[in-house]
């Protein structure tokens, strides 16, 4: 079993309750779903990385899933950031 | 085909994270806004970890990156997790701070409004402690009761006058006005040792302390 990949996956998994527990209290409701998608996709890519490095080195489909999950993770984060930007701009218009 | 796909599977995530980086950098962070500079910095750093990872992966496939540095890249990608955590926590802290500032602003505005009401009303209004001392008096009350101007600043004033209630009950101080039962339209005579007197029509409402006992009273009056 690849220690580094497993450690990264388990660390991310262990911090899920903390990140989502705090995130749920943030009032940017529209950014939550994209962040959830992005974070979950990156977690999935970590899991695929564990499988790829530990048991199926060089397997095309596992590598494919890992990279596509990375891509979805990046796009999810981009979407969440965009929603955060909208929220920040609306707050400026509303309160200033 | 296989080589092209090998490059593409690194390029696609890199493009996605590049878009994410641009989106994060476009988030405005004005003072008092919902997103702090710290949060923006942490999220940008978290995405930066992946940009480094995907870029080195492409360089590695092109034979331009030494495999021996691979563990270092894995370590950099590991930083994504704490950066995201710090970013989320910074957003939450800013939200808490903004809520506290908004509450403080509301309290200040309400206080200013109450002060304006107290100073413009034609009635005298005093706040009495449980011992009957005046802890606050508005402008009219200060004039009627001949209080010094600092009574408005919550100082304690024991009025040197006797208080005679409408039912004839007499008290050496204003404590007769402090009780559990509110007074409605009562005539009260204040008599100073010098012989100076004031006849007031007065309403009172008790103020309860945290333990539920009477901690004072608010009295509003007009001079007759």
Order of helices and strands of chain B: HHHHEEHEEEEE
Query: Which outline of chain A best applies?
Result: elongated
Query: What does the largest sheet of chain B look like?
Result: 7 strands, antiparallel
Percent strand of chain A equals under 5%
Net shape of chain B: rod-shaped
Number of helices of chain B: 5
Distance between the termini of chain A: 55 Å
Helix amount of chain A: over 70%
| Biggest interface and residues each | A-B, 40 and 39 residues
The largest pleated sheet of chain A is described as:
none
Span of the ends, CA to CA of chain B: 102 Å
In percent, how helical is the residue content of chain B? 40-55%
Radius of gyration of chain A: 16 Å
Summarize the structure.
The complex is a heterodimer of chains A (96) and B (224). With 96 residues, chain A is an all-alpha fold. Chain A is built from three helices and no strands.
